[in-house]
Structure formats: structure tokens, C-alpha cells
Amino acid sequence: MKKLRESDNQKLVEKNLLGMSRERFGQVEYAENTGKTLKQIAAYFGHEKKMVLCMLAVVVCGTICGVWAPGLQSNAVDIIAGARGGNFAKTLSLMRGVYLLYSASGLLQGMCSAKLSQGIVKRMRGELFGKIVDLPVSYLDTHSHGDVMSRMTNDIENISTTVSQALPSLFSGVLTIIGTVAVMLLYCWQLALLSFATVILTVIATKFLSQKVRKYSRRRQMLLGQLNGTVEEMISGYRTVVAYNHQDITTEDFCNTADALTKAGIKTDIFSGVMGPVLNCIGNIGFVVIAAFGGYFSVHGLISVGVISAFIVYARQFSRPINEIAQIYGQLQTAIAGAERVFTVLEEQNEEQSGGMLEQAEDAEVRFENIQFSYEPGKPMIQDFTLTVPSGQKVALVGSTGCGKTTIVNLLMRFYDIDSGKILINGQNVEDVARESLRHNIAIVLQDTVLFSNTVENNLKYGNENATKEQLEQAASMSRCEEMIRNLPNGYDTILTGSGENISQGQRQLLAIARAFVADPRILILDEATSNVDTRTEKAIQDAMQLVMRNRTSIVIAHRLSTIRDSDLIVVMDHGRIVESGAHDELLAQKGKYYELYMRQYAGYAI
After folding, report:
1. 268 and 397 share a domain?
2. Are residues 182 and 193 in the same domain?
3. 206 within 8 A of 26, measured Cβ to Cβ
4. CA dist., res. 172 & res. 112, Å (int)
5. Residue 22 resides in a domain
6. Do 246 and 131 share a structural domain?
7. Which of 28, 282, 331, 487 is the most exposed place for a label (fewest CB within 10 A)?
8. Alpha carbon of 122 to those of 108, 150, 301, 340: distances in Å?
9. pLDDT the model gives residue 250
10. Which residues are in the ABC transmembrane type-1 domain (predicted)?
């Protein structure tokens, strides 16, 4: 049990917790095609040209001020020391103005980068959401919903953070390094080279300590995931833990993990805590080098005292952006990798929407002709499926789990397209009908009822947004949920929270049936609509369904055979084929597959 839990927690950590370690300590995700992704990102910057130019202008202005200010400080010191002539008050005023402009540039840079990042992210998030709602059902069936949501949230948030923080720092850092190096070499190339040596020590120390921090922080996050997993398992499965007397074992597992987490946390904090003092020490060494050799050069007339003071500022100004660039490199790579994941979704093909309108008629006969279908090539799911559902009749599909019942519904709704054969509605091939028109004429009530965090009224209108209040009330009455709605705090204006968690499962099912009634479909599909409710609620739902299905072509999928005894036709499926069909009594008399299924459910009861 412990090994299993550790394996599960390992997966949990990799997906959720290591992201924190990546952001804080530089664990990097890399894009597979960086060049292509950067071009796609650049296209979004193209829509924000004015803001990009404004930000670059502010960055350039701030960099110039940052490089110029220490030079003015040098002049002021030399004027005080008498090493050069000039107006000290004027120089001091100019230096004050430059520093104020430098501070204002930093403020404007933050504002511009924030507006730029939010503009880009708003456009990207809007395009991604628009793409998701237009994707084929097959895409969302074959991709983790959590992964798709992660692209919408985490990946785009990484891009936003990078644009607002990392990119301005990168531009400013590169320009600052170039300007600072140029000025230092201009003032005294010998002292500049000596200053660069301490910067190299800073880079080496940062790299070494960062590796240690990353190593132990990663282990700490993994152990934290295991610890959280242990606590979650204990709380959610507390009755089982107590019932099997596993309190001591669970406590031992928790303590072992907690001890390992403590050791990893201590090492992480030690190395991360040491980083600041070590870098300060190297910086102080640099100041000593500049003071000692600067004094020597000053005595010999190579430089003035003011240049020494400027070099002290330039040395710190030079090392700071190098450390920042080293830190944001991982952030940039992670953002590019996240952008690539977003663009991968954006490049997916939308669900095909071409086709004509479904011909309108009172009747709706559905016919499946020689249907062949497979989710994966070489693994047929539906084989030689031929069935006619007469207009206005109720046809039930039954069979063991995995026999293809729901797949038939998916094919009729064109969530998937068939490999071969035809699906006809009143003789019209559904492949020639636009999906929107097809689905407008079909309503479906699923096993897992989906309601939205909205009012009861808006949930009922989901199938027909133009429905009147009278139509909603009629649908509620016919679906046996009128009294239930009336007893809600605000009636039709009651907000269903958490997809309907503030009402019972049976009430949610009744609302789903009422929603189908509001849609007023020609074809109705019921997929295990009563599988999650008690017998009494099931009876109420069945009564409601009988009214909804009246004079409509209906396809019912059910495991509880008692719910489909009154069907006009019962079709028994096995391994994607029809093996039996007929009325309830006929199939029982044959004592075939249906009889076997029925007896398994009702053995010992009168048939």
C-alpha cells in the first residue's frame, strides 16, 4: 500500500507541485521548437506595437539615466576634491534630476509592461477559449481535461508573468551591461578588468548555490506531495483506516515522510540563506579591489577619486543585471514552453461545420445502415450495425458495459464520424447536414447530469434560449419538477452552485429532462438517465420521460431493464453488433442474451 501511495503521489507532485520549484529555483521546461514559438509570440506583440514601443523607450531612457548618474556622481566628488572645475550646485541638481527621471522610468516601465502583458494575455486567452469550444468532441475525449485547463491557466499565466517582469528586466539588463561596460572601460580599462573578475566569481557562486537549492527544494516538494497525499488518504479514507486498524502504520508513514521533509527543508533553507551573504561577501571583495587598486591608480594619476566612487556604483550595477538574467533565463524558457503548449491547441482543426440544414418535418425516422466504426485503427468498435428507429417510437439499446451503446449515440450526434455506412434521418444523410442543424433537432439527457452555475431558468433555457416563461413552466410541470422549483429559495431565479450541488441528484436529473422538453426536439436520447437515483425518484423520472418521449423518436440506453420494458423495440448489443431485437416478452421467450441479462438482474423474482 505504501509503494502504491508513493507512486500516485509522485505523479501528483510532477503535475502540480514541481511547478512551484520551477518558478522559484529555476527548473526549466524547454520548448521543442523555440524558433517557431517565438515567431508566434511575436505576432501577439505586433498587435500591441504602440505599447511595445512605449515600453522600449522607457527602458532605454531608464538605462541611460542609470549609466549616466554614477558619472555625474564622479564629477561631483572631483569638484569637491578640487580635481576638476565646475559648478557643484548645478552638477548636484542635474544628478538629482537624473535619479528622479530614473525612478520615474522604473514606474512607467512597470505600468507599460503590465498593460502589455495583460493585452497579450487577454487576446491569447480569448483565442484559446474560442478554440476549445470549437474543438471536436474527440479531442477533449482523448486529452486530459486537467491538461487543457492547465494551458488556459498556468501556461498563459507564465506568459503573462514573463512579459510583465522578465522581458523588461532582460531588455534593461542587456542595455545596462553594455552601457556600464562601455563607461567603465572608458574611464579606466585596467580597473574595469579587475572589477569583471569579481563578477565572474559572483556568477560561479550563484550557479553552484542555485544547483544545491534546486536539488534539495525539488526533493522537499516531492516529499511535501507525499505528505499531503498521506493526509488526504487518511482523511478521505478515515473509516477504512480505522476499520482495518491501520492507525499506527499510517502514523509511521506520516512521521517518516515528515522527518525526510524536515531534513530536505533544512538543507534548502541553509543553501538559500547562504546565497545572500556569499554574494555580499564577493561584492565587498569587489569594493576592496576597486578601493585598493583605484587608490593606487589615483596616486599615480591614472584616475581621479570621483572615478573610484563611480566604479563602486558601476560594479554593483554591472553584477545585478547578470544575476537577474541568469535567474529569468529559466522563466523565459518555461514561458516559451508554455506558449508552445498553447499554440499546439490553437493549431488543432476545428470541428467541421459545413453542410446543409436538416429538412424540417413532423416525423423523424432514424436509420443506421451497415455502420462500421473504430476509435483506434484496427480495433473495430461497431461492426455491421443496421437499425431502423421508426418515427415516434421508443427504441432501447441494452447490453453489457463496453458493447457500443453510447458509441451509437455519439455517431448519431456526430461527435465522431463513422468509418463507413450511413446514418439517415428521414432519408437524409447526416454527413451532409451541418452539425449545428443536426444537434438543434436532437436533445440528450446523460447519465451524468450537467448543470451550470447559473439560475434554474437559464439552465432550462440552455436548449432553447428563446423559450418563454410559459414554456418553462409547462416543461417543469410535464417533467414533475414544478413543485421542486417552487420550493427553492428563489424559484426559477435560484442560483445552482457548483453545477447543481445545492440540489439532489434526482432533482438535477428532473431539471435535465425539463431542459430537454424545453428544447422541443424531434429526436430524444436518454443515456442511463436514471442510473444514479433511488427507486422512488426513478419512478418520478420515468413518468416525466414518458411525457417527454410522447410522439418523439426516442433512443434509450439503460442497464436497468425494468426501465425499458415498455419500449416498442429492444435491441441487444454485444461487441458492437446487434445480436437480438424484439419486444420485451419476445426476447424473454427466446431465452437468449436478453434473457441472460434480465435473469442476472432479477434472479429470484417473477418474470
Report:
1. no
2. no
3. no
4. 14
5. no
6. no
7. 487
8. 21, 16, 59, 17
9. 85
10. 55-334
Q: CA-to-CA distance for 151 and 279, rounded, in angstroms?
A: 37
Q: Does the structure show a pLDDT above 50 at 419? A: yes
Q: Which domain holds residue 245?
A: 189-302
The alpha carbon dihedral of 245, 246, 252, 254 has a sign of negative
Nearest alpha carbon to residue 318 among 274, 287, 275, 278: 287
What confidence score (pLDDT) does residue 306 get? 80
8: in domain: no
Statement to judge: residues 534 and 449 lie in one domain: yes
Q: Are residues 551 and 518 in the same domain?
A: yes
In this structure, the answer to whether residues 150 and 60 fall within a common structural domain is yes
Cell 450495425 belongs to which residue? Answer: 385
CATH number, domain with residue 135: 1.20.1560.10
**For residue range 141-160, what is the model confidence (pLDDT) as tens digits?**
887 777 788 788 878 887 88
User: What element of type H or E holds 16?
Assistant: none
Q: What is the model's pLDDT at position 8?
A: 39
Q: Is residue 416 included in any domain, yes or no?
A: yes
Contact predicate 17/221, CB 8 Å: yes
Instruction: Check the CA dihedral 125-130-133-134 and report its sign.
Output: negative
Q: Which residue carries 417527454 as its cell?
A: 548
pLDDT digits (tens, 9 = 90+) for 348-393: 888 888 888 888 887 889 999 999 999 888 888 999 999 999 988 8
- Residues contacting residue 214 through CB under 8 Å, at least 6 positions apart: 21, 25, 26, 27
**pTM tops 0.85:** no
Cβ neighbours of residue 113 closer than 8 Å, sequence gap 6 or more: 55, 163, 164, 165, 167, 168
Task: Determine the Cα–Cα distance for residues 554 and 395; give it in Å rounded to an integer.
Answer: 6
Q: Does 275 share its domain with 411?
A: no
Has residue 155 been placed in a domain?
A: yes
